[in-house]
Amino acid sequence: MALIEFNDFSFKYVGSDSLALKKVNLSVEAGEYVVVSGPSGCGKTTLCRAINGLVPQFHRGYIAGNVFVDSKSTRENSVADMAGITGLVFQNPSNQLVTLNVEKEIAFGPENLGVDPAEIRKRVEHLIHLLGLEHLREKHPHEMSGGEQQRVAMAATLALRPKILVADEPTSNLDPQSAEMILELIAEQNREGMTVVLVEHRLDVVAKDASRLILMNEGSVVADGPPEDVLLMDICQDIGIGIPKAVEVFKRLRSKDLHLPEVPMTGEDLVRIFREVVEHDSA
Amino acid sequence: MIQLDDVHYAYDGLYPALRGVSLEIDEGESIAIMGSNGAGKTTLLKHLNGLLRPQKGHVFLDGEDTSKYSVAQLSRQIGLVWQNPDHQLFLDSVEKEIVFGLKNLGYDEEEVSDRCDRTLERLGLTHLSHRSPFSLSGGERKRVALASVLAIEPRILALDEPTIGQDARQKERLAKMLDQMNEEGRTVIVVTHDIEFVIEHFPRTLAMSEGIIVADGKTEAVLSNPTIVERCSLAVPQMTIVAQGLHQLHPEVSPRLTQVNEIESELIRLAGGI
Questions:
Q1: pLDDT tens digits, residue range B100-114?
Q2: Is residue A259 in a domain?
Protein backbone atom coordinates (compact mmCIF):
# COMPACT_ATOMS: atom_id res chain seq x y z
CA MET A 1 0.00 0.00 0.00
CA ALA A 2 1.22 3.51 -0.81
CA LEU A 3 1.95 5.90 2.05
CA ILE A 4 -1.22 7.89 1.31
CA GLU A 5 -4.18 6.10 -0.29
CA PHE A 6 -7.54 7.64 -1.16
CA ASN A 7 -10.04 4.99 -2.28
CA ASP A 8 -13.21 6.47 -3.80
CA PHE A 9 -13.22 8.99 -0.97
CA SER A 10 -16.08 11.47 -0.80
CA PHE A 11 -16.85 13.98 1.91
CA LYS A 12 -19.52 16.56 2.59
CA TYR A 13 -19.36 18.97 5.54
CA VAL A 14 -22.31 19.16 7.90
CA GLY A 15 -24.53 22.00 6.73
CA SER A 16 -23.16 22.08 3.22
CA ASP A 17 -25.26 20.92 0.31
CA SER A 18 -22.42 19.90 -1.99
CA LEU A 19 -19.60 17.41 -1.75
CA ALA A 20 -16.23 18.95 -0.86
CA LEU A 21 -14.49 15.84 -2.23
CA LYS A 22 -16.03 13.60 -4.88
CA LYS A 23 -14.79 10.02 -5.26
CA VAL A 24 -11.15 10.91 -4.98
CA ASN A 25 -8.67 8.16 -5.84
CA LEU A 26 -5.07 8.95 -5.15
CA SER A 27 -1.88 7.14 -4.17
CA VAL A 28 1.16 9.01 -2.94
CA GLU A 29 4.34 7.01 -2.44
CA ALA A 30 6.87 7.76 0.28
CA GLY A 31 9.33 10.46 -0.80
CA GLU A 32 7.13 12.18 -3.35
CA TYR A 33 6.75 15.97 -3.51
CA VAL A 34 3.18 16.61 -4.55
CA VAL A 35 1.82 20.07 -5.29
CA VAL A 36 -1.97 20.39 -5.24
CA SER A 37 -3.55 23.35 -7.01
CA GLY A 38 -6.95 24.45 -8.26
CA PRO A 39 -9.51 27.26 -7.94
CA SER A 40 -10.44 28.43 -4.44
CA GLY A 41 -13.15 26.21 -3.00
CA CYS A 42 -12.16 23.19 -5.13
CA GLY A 43 -11.42 20.92 -2.16
CA LYS A 44 -7.67 21.40 -1.65
CA THR A 45 -7.93 22.21 2.05
CA THR A 46 -10.38 19.34 2.60
CA LEU A 47 -7.89 17.01 0.92
CA CYS A 48 -5.21 18.17 3.38
CA ARG A 49 -7.54 17.64 6.32
CA ALA A 50 -8.39 14.16 5.04
CA ILE A 51 -4.71 13.21 5.05
CA ASN A 52 -4.17 14.01 8.71
CA GLY A 53 -7.57 12.77 9.80
CA LEU A 54 -9.11 16.14 10.77
CA VAL A 55 -11.65 15.02 8.17
CA PRO A 56 -13.58 13.01 9.38
CA GLN A 57 -12.42 13.00 13.03
CA PHE A 58 -12.80 16.73 13.77
CA HIS A 59 -14.78 18.05 10.79
CA ARG A 60 -17.84 15.83 10.73
CA GLY A 61 -20.01 15.08 7.77
CA TYR A 62 -21.05 12.56 5.17
CA ILE A 63 -18.28 10.13 4.24
CA ALA A 64 -17.91 7.48 1.58
CA GLY A 65 -14.80 5.48 0.72
CA ASN A 66 -11.59 5.39 2.72
CA VAL A 67 -8.30 7.14 3.29
CA PHE A 68 -5.30 5.16 4.51
CA VAL A 69 -2.20 6.93 5.73
CA ASP A 70 0.77 4.77 6.60
CA SER A 71 -1.68 1.84 6.34
CA LYS A 72 -3.96 3.33 9.02
CA SER A 73 -7.55 4.19 8.23
CA THR A 74 -8.34 7.80 9.11
CA ARG A 75 -11.85 6.66 9.99
CA GLU A 76 -10.57 4.41 12.74
CA ASN A 77 -7.68 6.39 14.19
CA SER A 78 -7.89 9.61 16.19
CA VAL A 79 -6.23 12.84 15.11
CA ALA A 80 -3.77 12.32 17.97
CA ASP A 81 -2.81 8.90 16.59
CA MET A 82 -2.25 10.37 13.14
CA ALA A 83 -0.39 13.47 14.38
CA GLY A 84 2.92 11.65 14.64
CA ILE A 85 2.62 10.61 10.97
CA THR A 86 1.33 13.75 9.32
CA GLY A 87 2.32 17.28 10.21
CA LEU A 88 -0.05 19.96 8.96
CA VAL A 89 0.76 23.61 8.40
CA PHE A 90 -2.29 25.78 7.79
CA GLN A 91 -3.04 28.90 5.74
CA ASN A 92 -3.32 31.12 8.81
CA PRO A 93 -0.55 30.43 11.29
CA SER A 94 -2.31 32.42 14.03
CA ASN A 95 -4.92 29.63 14.12
CA GLN A 96 -2.18 27.17 14.91
CA LEU A 97 -0.03 28.85 17.56
CA VAL A 98 -1.02 28.03 21.11
CA THR A 99 1.74 28.99 23.53
CA LEU A 100 3.45 32.13 24.78
CA ASN A 101 6.83 31.99 23.13
CA VAL A 102 8.75 30.43 20.31
CA GLU A 103 10.62 27.80 22.32
CA LYS A 104 7.47 26.59 24.06
CA GLU A 105 5.62 26.54 20.78
CA ILE A 106 8.19 24.29 19.13
CA ALA A 107 8.44 22.04 22.20
CA PHE A 108 4.68 21.72 22.63
CA GLY A 109 4.11 18.94 20.04
CA PRO A 110 6.98 16.64 21.03
CA GLU A 111 6.18 17.14 24.73
CA ASN A 112 2.68 15.89 24.07
CA LEU A 113 4.04 12.89 22.24
CA GLY A 114 6.26 12.11 25.25
CA VAL A 115 9.62 12.77 23.59
CA ASP A 116 12.63 12.83 25.94
CA PRO A 117 13.32 16.40 27.23
CA ALA A 118 16.98 16.39 26.15
CA GLU A 119 15.92 15.38 22.65
CA ILE A 120 13.25 18.11 22.63
CA ARG A 121 15.84 20.72 23.59
CA LYS A 122 18.03 19.54 20.73
CA ARG A 123 15.20 19.75 18.22
CA VAL A 124 14.14 23.21 19.46
CA GLU A 125 17.65 24.63 19.08
CA HIS A 126 18.13 23.01 15.68
CA LEU A 127 14.84 24.39 14.35
CA ILE A 128 15.33 27.88 15.81
CA HIS A 129 18.62 28.01 13.95
CA LEU A 130 17.30 26.38 10.76
CA LEU A 131 14.36 28.78 10.43
CA GLY A 132 16.22 31.89 11.54
CA LEU A 133 14.09 32.45 14.63
CA GLU A 134 16.86 33.50 17.03
CA HIS A 135 15.68 37.11 17.29
CA LEU A 136 12.11 35.99 18.04
CA ARG A 137 13.02 33.71 20.93
CA GLU A 138 11.35 35.81 23.61
CA LYS A 139 8.55 37.24 21.53
CA HIS A 140 4.90 36.29 21.94
CA PRO A 141 3.64 34.69 18.70
CA HIS A 142 0.86 37.25 18.45
CA GLU A 143 3.38 40.10 18.42
CA MET A 144 4.97 38.66 15.30
CA SER A 145 4.17 39.45 11.70
CA GLY A 146 2.32 36.85 9.66
CA GLY A 147 5.50 35.64 8.06
CA GLU A 148 7.28 35.22 11.36
CA GLN A 149 4.31 33.32 12.75
CA GLN A 150 4.36 30.95 9.80
CA ARG A 151 8.02 30.17 10.37
CA VAL A 152 7.24 29.35 13.99
CA ALA A 153 4.29 27.16 12.94
CA MET A 154 6.54 25.35 10.48
CA ALA A 155 9.17 24.78 13.17
CA ALA A 156 6.52 23.44 15.57
CA THR A 157 5.33 21.00 12.91
CA LEU A 158 8.80 19.81 11.95
CA ALA A 159 9.59 19.25 15.64
CA LEU A 160 7.25 16.24 15.48
CA ARG A 161 9.44 14.66 12.79
CA PRO A 162 6.42 13.61 10.74
CA LYS A 163 6.70 11.19 7.78
CA ILE A 164 4.43 13.43 5.78
CA LEU A 165 4.36 17.20 5.73
CA VAL A 166 1.07 18.62 4.53
CA ALA A 167 1.31 22.37 3.98
CA ASP A 168 -1.74 24.39 2.97
CA GLU A 169 -0.52 27.57 1.26
CA PRO A 170 2.22 27.98 3.84
CA THR A 171 3.86 30.95 2.14
CA SER A 172 0.77 33.06 1.40
CA ASN A 173 1.52 35.49 4.20
CA LEU A 174 5.26 35.63 3.62
CA ASP A 175 7.38 38.13 1.76
CA PRO A 176 9.06 36.56 -1.28
CA GLN A 177 12.42 36.03 0.39
CA SER A 178 10.92 34.44 3.51
CA ALA A 179 8.68 32.37 1.21
CA GLU A 180 11.72 31.17 -0.71
CA MET A 181 13.37 30.26 2.58
CA ILE A 182 10.37 28.17 3.69
CA LEU A 183 10.08 26.49 0.29
CA GLU A 184 13.78 25.68 0.27
CA LEU A 185 13.39 24.20 3.75
CA ILE A 186 10.46 22.05 2.56
CA ALA A 187 12.44 20.92 -0.50
CA GLU A 188 15.34 20.07 1.79
CA GLN A 189 13.08 17.97 4.05
CA ASN A 190 11.84 16.20 0.92
CA ARG A 191 15.38 15.46 -0.26
CA GLU A 192 16.00 13.89 3.12
CA GLY A 193 13.05 11.59 2.56
CA MET A 194 10.00 13.39 3.92
CA THR A 195 6.88 13.08 1.79
CA VAL A 196 5.46 16.51 0.98
CA VAL A 197 1.95 17.52 -0.03
CA LEU A 198 1.85 21.26 -0.68
CA VAL A 199 -1.22 23.26 -1.62
CA GLU A 200 -0.34 26.36 -3.60
CA HIS A 201 -1.79 28.73 -6.19
CA ARG A 202 1.49 30.26 -7.20
CA LEU A 203 2.93 27.53 -9.34
CA ASP A 204 5.70 29.85 -10.51
CA VAL A 205 7.35 29.47 -7.09
CA VAL A 206 6.69 25.79 -6.33
CA ALA A 207 6.57 23.89 -9.64
CA LYS A 208 10.36 23.66 -9.73
CA ASP A 209 10.49 21.55 -6.56
CA ALA A 210 7.55 19.25 -7.24
CA SER A 211 7.81 15.73 -8.62
CA ARG A 212 4.09 15.67 -9.23
CA LEU A 213 1.31 18.20 -9.79
CA ILE A 214 -2.33 17.46 -9.00
CA LEU A 215 -5.08 19.81 -10.15
CA MET A 216 -8.48 19.76 -8.50
CA ASN A 217 -11.76 21.28 -9.54
CA GLU A 218 -15.12 21.08 -7.77
CA GLY A 219 -13.99 18.32 -5.44
CA SER A 220 -12.41 16.06 -8.07
CA VAL A 221 -8.88 15.41 -9.25
CA VAL A 222 -8.83 16.66 -12.85
CA ALA A 223 -5.14 16.30 -13.71
CA ASP A 224 -2.28 14.38 -12.13
CA GLY A 225 1.26 14.00 -13.43
CA PRO A 226 4.73 15.54 -13.61
CA PRO A 227 4.48 19.38 -13.54
CA GLU A 228 6.05 19.71 -16.98
CA ASP A 229 3.21 17.62 -18.46
CA VAL A 230 0.29 18.98 -16.43
CA LEU A 231 1.22 22.64 -16.97
CA LEU A 232 0.94 22.18 -20.73
CA MET A 233 -2.61 20.83 -20.50
CA ASP A 234 -5.56 23.01 -21.55
CA ILE A 235 -7.29 22.15 -18.27
CA CYS A 236 -5.11 24.83 -16.60
CA GLN A 237 -6.86 27.55 -18.58
CA ASP A 238 -10.24 25.82 -18.30
CA ILE A 239 -10.23 25.93 -14.51
CA GLY A 240 -8.46 29.31 -14.31
CA ILE A 241 -5.17 28.54 -12.61
CA GLY A 242 -2.06 30.51 -13.45
CA ILE A 243 0.89 28.73 -15.02
CA PRO A 244 4.46 29.98 -14.55
CA LYS A 245 5.36 32.72 -17.03
CA ALA A 246 8.30 30.60 -18.24
CA VAL A 247 5.86 27.83 -19.25
CA GLU A 248 3.72 30.45 -20.97
CA VAL A 249 6.74 31.51 -23.02
CA PHE A 250 7.48 27.84 -23.86
CA LYS A 251 3.93 27.41 -25.17
CA ARG A 252 4.00 30.59 -27.21
CA LEU A 253 7.32 29.67 -28.81
CA ARG A 254 6.01 26.19 -29.57
CA SER A 255 2.98 27.65 -31.33
CA LYS A 256 5.45 29.54 -33.55
CA ASP A 257 7.36 26.36 -34.28
CA LEU A 258 10.27 27.14 -32.00
CA HIS A 259 10.56 23.98 -29.91
CA LEU A 260 12.57 23.97 -26.70
CA PRO A 261 13.67 20.47 -25.61
CA GLU A 262 12.52 20.92 -21.99
CA VAL A 263 9.66 22.75 -20.27
CA PRO A 264 11.17 25.51 -18.10
CA MET A 265 9.68 26.01 -14.62
CA THR A 266 11.68 29.12 -13.72
CA GLY A 267 13.29 32.10 -15.43
CA GLU A 268 16.73 30.58 -14.86
CA ASP A 269 15.56 27.33 -16.53
CA LEU A 270 14.34 29.24 -19.56
CA VAL A 271 17.64 31.06 -20.05
CA ARG A 272 19.65 27.84 -19.64
CA ILE A 273 17.48 25.80 -22.03
CA PHE A 274 17.40 28.54 -24.64
CA ARG A 275 21.12 28.97 -24.43
CA GLU A 276 21.71 25.25 -24.95
CA VAL A 277 19.50 25.26 -28.03
CA VAL A 278 21.21 28.27 -29.58
CA GLU A 279 24.72 27.05 -28.78
CA HIS A 280 23.94 23.57 -30.01
CA ASP A 281 22.60 24.91 -33.29
CA SER A 282 25.47 27.29 -33.88
CA ALA A 283 28.08 24.64 -33.06
CA MET B 1 -5.46 64.12 0.08
CA ILE B 2 -3.72 61.73 2.49
CA GLN B 3 -0.60 63.01 4.13
CA LEU B 4 1.63 61.37 6.72
CA ASP B 5 4.12 63.62 8.42
CA ASP B 6 6.97 61.94 10.31
CA VAL B 7 4.76 59.23 11.78
CA HIS B 8 6.27 57.08 14.52
CA TYR B 9 4.65 54.08 16.18
CA ALA B 10 5.98 51.38 18.49
CA TYR B 11 3.82 48.50 19.77
CA ASP B 12 3.67 48.59 23.57
CA GLY B 13 6.07 51.50 23.24
CA LEU B 14 8.81 48.90 22.77
CA TYR B 15 8.68 47.40 19.30
CA PRO B 16 9.16 50.16 16.74
CA ALA B 17 7.01 49.51 13.67
CA LEU B 18 7.07 52.95 12.05
CA ARG B 19 10.16 55.10 12.45
CA GLY B 20 9.40 58.40 10.79
CA VAL B 21 7.13 57.81 7.79
CA SER B 22 6.23 60.76 5.57
CA LEU B 23 4.24 60.45 2.39
CA GLU B 24 1.53 62.03 0.28
CA ILE B 25 -1.15 60.26 -1.68
CA ASP B 26 -3.36 62.20 -4.10
CA GLU B 27 -7.02 61.56 -4.73
CA GLY B 28 -7.48 58.92 -7.42
CA GLU B 29 -4.04 57.36 -7.10
CA SER B 30 -3.46 53.66 -7.24
CA ILE B 31 -0.53 52.71 -5.09
CA ALA B 32 1.16 49.51 -3.89
CA ILE B 33 3.05 49.20 -0.63
CA MET B 34 5.66 46.44 -0.64
CA GLY B 35 8.33 45.25 1.76
CA SER B 36 9.42 42.39 3.96
CA ASN B 37 7.40 40.88 6.80
CA GLY B 38 7.55 43.23 9.76
CA ALA B 39 8.49 46.28 7.66
CA GLY B 40 5.51 48.25 9.00
CA LYS B 41 3.12 48.01 6.05
CA THR B 42 0.06 46.91 8.03
CA THR B 43 0.85 49.37 10.81
CA LEU B 44 0.86 52.11 8.21
CA LEU B 45 -2.57 51.06 6.88
CA LYS B 46 -4.00 51.06 10.40
CA HIS B 47 -2.95 54.70 10.78
CA LEU B 48 -5.05 55.68 7.77
CA ASN B 49 -8.38 54.92 9.42
CA GLY B 50 -7.36 55.71 12.96
CA LEU B 51 -7.16 52.15 14.32
CA LEU B 52 -3.70 53.21 15.42
CA ARG B 53 -2.74 56.79 16.23
CA PRO B 54 0.75 58.17 15.70
CA GLN B 55 2.84 58.35 18.88
CA LYS B 56 4.76 61.10 17.15
CA GLY B 57 3.91 62.91 13.92
CA HIS B 58 0.59 63.45 12.16
CA VAL B 59 -1.82 61.92 9.70
CA PHE B 60 -3.85 64.34 7.59
CA LEU B 61 -6.93 63.63 5.49
CA ASP B 62 -7.99 66.46 3.16
CA GLY B 63 -5.67 68.76 5.10
CA GLU B 64 -7.29 68.00 8.48
CA ASP B 65 -5.41 66.23 11.25
CA THR B 66 -7.16 62.87 11.70
CA SER B 67 -6.60 62.96 15.46
CA LYS B 68 -9.87 64.86 15.76
CA TYR B 69 -11.87 62.14 14.00
CA SER B 70 -13.13 58.86 15.42
CA VAL B 71 -12.45 55.52 13.74
CA ALA B 72 -16.15 55.41 12.80
CA GLN B 73 -15.87 58.78 11.04
CA LEU B 74 -12.70 57.81 9.23
CA SER B 75 -14.16 54.45 8.23
CA ARG B 76 -16.78 56.22 6.14
CA GLN B 77 -13.96 57.59 4.00
CA ILE B 78 -11.53 54.72 4.15
CA GLY B 79 -12.49 51.09 3.74
CA LEU B 80 -9.87 48.75 5.14
CA VAL B 81 -9.73 45.04 4.37
CA TRP B 82 -7.65 42.98 6.76
CA GLN B 83 -5.07 40.46 5.74
CA ASN B 84 -6.84 37.71 7.67
CA PRO B 85 -10.56 37.57 6.75
CA ASP B 86 -11.35 35.79 10.01
CA HIS B 87 -10.64 39.05 11.83
CA GLN B 88 -13.39 40.67 9.83
CA LEU B 89 -16.19 38.17 9.26
CA PHE B 90 -18.76 37.54 12.01
CA LEU B 91 -22.20 36.90 10.50
CA ASP B 92 -23.74 33.61 9.42
CA SER B 93 -24.23 34.27 5.73
CA VAL B 94 -22.20 35.85 2.97
CA GLU B 95 -25.06 38.12 2.04
CA LYS B 96 -25.50 39.35 5.61
CA GLU B 97 -21.80 40.22 5.81
CA ILE B 98 -22.13 42.46 2.79
CA VAL B 99 -25.47 43.97 3.73
CA PHE B 100 -24.31 44.81 7.27
CA GLY B 101 -22.00 47.68 6.39
CA LEU B 102 -24.35 49.09 3.79
CA LYS B 103 -27.28 49.21 6.23
CA ASN B 104 -25.13 50.87 8.86
CA LEU B 105 -24.35 53.61 6.39
CA GLY B 106 -28.09 54.21 6.00
CA TYR B 107 -28.67 53.15 2.40
CA ASP B 108 -32.26 52.28 1.53
CA GLU B 109 -33.24 48.68 0.95
CA GLU B 110 -33.15 48.83 -2.83
CA GLU B 111 -29.70 50.39 -2.91
CA VAL B 112 -28.45 47.85 -0.35
CA SER B 113 -29.67 44.91 -2.38
CA ASP B 114 -28.40 46.39 -5.68
CA ARG B 115 -24.94 46.95 -4.31
CA CYS B 116 -24.85 43.58 -2.61
CA ASP B 117 -25.84 41.69 -5.79
CA ARG B 118 -23.44 43.69 -7.94
CA THR B 119 -20.48 43.10 -5.62
CA LEU B 120 -21.23 39.39 -5.21
CA GLU B 121 -21.28 39.02 -8.97
CA ARG B 122 -18.13 41.02 -9.56
CA LEU B 123 -16.20 38.85 -7.13
CA GLY B 124 -17.70 35.54 -8.25
CA LEU B 125 -19.57 34.96 -4.98
CA THR B 126 -23.19 34.90 -6.14
CA HIS B 127 -23.49 31.12 -5.83
CA LEU B 128 -22.25 31.31 -2.23
CA SER B 129 -24.51 34.14 -1.03
CA HIS B 130 -26.48 32.01 1.45
CA ARG B 131 -23.54 30.01 2.77
CA SER B 132 -21.93 30.70 6.12
CA PRO B 133 -18.55 32.38 5.60
CA PHE B 134 -17.10 29.84 8.01
CA SER B 135 -18.03 26.95 5.73
CA LEU B 136 -16.08 28.51 2.86
CA SER B 137 -12.50 27.98 1.78
CA GLY B 138 -9.76 30.43 2.77
CA GLY B 139 -9.74 32.02 -0.68
CA GLU B 140 -13.51 32.39 -0.69
CA ARG B 141 -13.59 33.92 2.81
CA LYS B 142 -10.99 36.42 1.68
CA ARG B 143 -13.24 37.45 -1.20
CA VAL B 144 -16.21 37.84 1.16
CA ALA B 145 -14.16 40.16 3.38
CA LEU B 146 -13.17 42.15 0.30
CA ALA B 147 -16.78 42.25 -0.93
CA SER B 148 -18.07 43.57 2.40
CA VAL B 149 -15.82 46.61 2.04
CA LEU B 150 -15.90 47.05 -1.74
CA ALA B 151 -19.74 47.13 -1.63
CA ILE B 152 -19.54 50.33 0.41
CA GLU B 153 -17.52 51.90 -2.41
CA PRO B 154 -15.55 54.10 -0.04
CA ARG B 155 -13.52 57.03 -1.39
CA ILE B 156 -10.33 55.33 -0.32
CA LEU B 157 -9.75 51.58 -0.36
CA ALA B 158 -6.93 50.15 1.71
CA LEU B 159 -6.42 46.43 1.18
CA ASP B 160 -3.98 44.28 3.11
CA GLU B 161 -2.76 41.38 0.95
CA PRO B 162 -5.92 41.08 -1.17
CA THR B 163 -4.57 38.36 -3.49
CA ILE B 164 -3.77 35.74 -0.84
CA GLY B 165 -5.43 32.43 -1.60
CA GLN B 166 -6.75 33.60 -4.98
CA ASP B 167 -6.25 31.64 -8.17
CA ALA B 168 -5.35 33.44 -11.39
CA ARG B 169 -8.95 33.90 -12.50
CA GLN B 170 -10.13 35.35 -9.18
CA LYS B 171 -7.12 37.63 -9.04
CA GLU B 172 -8.01 38.94 -12.49
CA ARG B 173 -11.58 39.58 -11.32
CA LEU B 174 -10.38 41.46 -8.27
CA ALA B 175 -7.91 43.49 -10.33
CA LYS B 176 -10.63 44.44 -12.77
CA MET B 177 -12.87 45.62 -9.96
CA LEU B 178 -10.09 47.66 -8.36
CA ASP B 179 -9.13 49.19 -11.73
CA GLN B 180 -12.75 50.12 -12.29
CA MET B 181 -13.08 51.73 -8.86
CA ASN B 182 -9.88 53.61 -9.50
CA GLU B 183 -11.19 54.85 -12.86
CA GLU B 184 -14.25 56.15 -11.01
CA GLY B 185 -11.85 58.36 -9.06
CA ARG B 186 -11.40 56.26 -5.92
CA THR B 187 -8.00 55.95 -4.33
CA VAL B 188 -6.71 52.39 -4.07
CA ILE B 189 -3.91 51.42 -1.68
CA VAL B 190 -2.77 47.81 -1.47
CA VAL B 191 -0.21 46.09 0.67
CA THR B 192 1.04 43.06 -1.21
CA HIS B 193 3.94 40.74 -1.94
CA ASP B 194 2.46 39.85 -5.31
CA ILE B 195 4.88 41.47 -7.70
CA GLU B 196 3.09 40.51 -10.93
CA PHE B 197 -0.14 42.00 -9.54
CA VAL B 198 1.69 45.25 -8.78
CA ILE B 199 3.43 45.46 -12.16
CA GLU B 200 0.16 45.01 -14.00
CA HIS B 201 -2.10 47.28 -11.97
CA PHE B 202 -0.28 49.82 -9.81
CA PRO B 203 1.67 52.71 -11.35
CA ARG B 204 3.20 53.85 -8.05
CA THR B 205 5.04 51.68 -5.55
CA LEU B 206 6.25 52.46 -2.09
CA ALA B 207 8.90 50.12 -0.68
CA MET B 208 9.29 49.81 3.08
CA SER B 209 11.95 48.29 5.28
CA GLU B 210 12.21 48.31 9.06
CA GLY B 211 9.63 51.02 9.61
CA ILE B 212 10.77 53.51 7.01
CA ILE B 213 10.02 54.19 3.38
CA VAL B 214 13.12 53.40 1.34
CA ALA B 215 11.69 54.06 -2.11
CA ASP B 216 8.63 55.79 -3.48
CA GLY B 217 8.12 56.22 -7.20
CA LYS B 218 7.14 54.67 -10.49
CA THR B 219 6.60 50.94 -10.01
CA GLU B 220 8.97 49.93 -12.78
CA ALA B 221 11.78 52.07 -11.40
CA VAL B 222 11.33 50.88 -7.82
CA LEU B 223 11.10 47.18 -8.69
CA SER B 224 14.03 47.16 -11.07
CA ASN B 225 16.40 48.65 -8.52
CA PRO B 226 18.45 45.70 -7.20
CA THR B 227 19.39 47.46 -3.94
CA ILE B 228 15.74 48.09 -3.08
CA VAL B 229 14.71 44.58 -4.16
CA GLU B 230 17.31 43.13 -1.80
CA ARG B 231 16.65 45.46 1.12
CA CYS B 232 12.88 45.10 1.02
CA SER B 233 12.79 41.34 0.31
CA LEU B 234 10.98 41.81 -2.97
CA ALA B 235 10.80 39.16 -5.66
CA VAL B 236 12.29 39.63 -9.07
CA PRO B 237 9.59 38.89 -11.68
CA GLN B 238 10.26 35.65 -13.57
CA MET B 239 10.46 37.47 -16.90
CA THR B 240 12.95 39.97 -15.48
CA ILE B 241 15.17 37.06 -14.40
CA VAL B 242 15.06 35.87 -18.02
CA ALA B 243 15.76 39.40 -19.29
CA GLN B 244 18.77 39.71 -16.98
CA GLY B 245 20.07 36.30 -18.08
CA LEU B 246 19.68 37.18 -21.75
CA HIS B 247 21.24 40.60 -21.20
CA GLN B 248 24.45 38.93 -20.00
CA LEU B 249 24.66 36.90 -23.20
CA HIS B 250 23.28 39.57 -25.51
CA PRO B 251 23.84 43.07 -24.08
CA GLU B 252 21.28 44.58 -26.43
CA VAL B 253 18.46 42.85 -24.51
CA SER B 254 17.14 45.18 -21.82
CA PRO B 255 17.53 43.64 -18.33
CA ARG B 256 14.35 45.43 -17.25
CA LEU B 257 11.73 43.55 -19.26
CA THR B 258 8.78 42.27 -17.24
CA GLN B 259 6.26 40.93 -19.76
CA VAL B 260 5.83 37.52 -21.42
CA ASN B 261 5.37 39.04 -24.90
CA GLU B 262 8.58 41.08 -24.54
CA ILE B 263 10.59 37.95 -23.71
CA GLU B 264 8.83 36.00 -26.43
CA SER B 265 9.83 38.49 -29.12
CA GLU B 266 13.42 38.72 -27.86
CA LEU B 267 13.76 34.92 -27.94
CA ILE B 268 12.30 34.71 -31.43
CA ARG B 269 14.65 37.45 -32.58
CA LEU B 270 17.67 35.77 -30.95
CA ALA B 271 16.72 32.39 -32.42
CA GLY B 272 16.37 33.97 -35.86
CA GLY B 273 17.96 31.91 -38.58
CA ILE B 274 17.55 28.63 -36.70
A1: 988 888 889 999 999
A2: yes
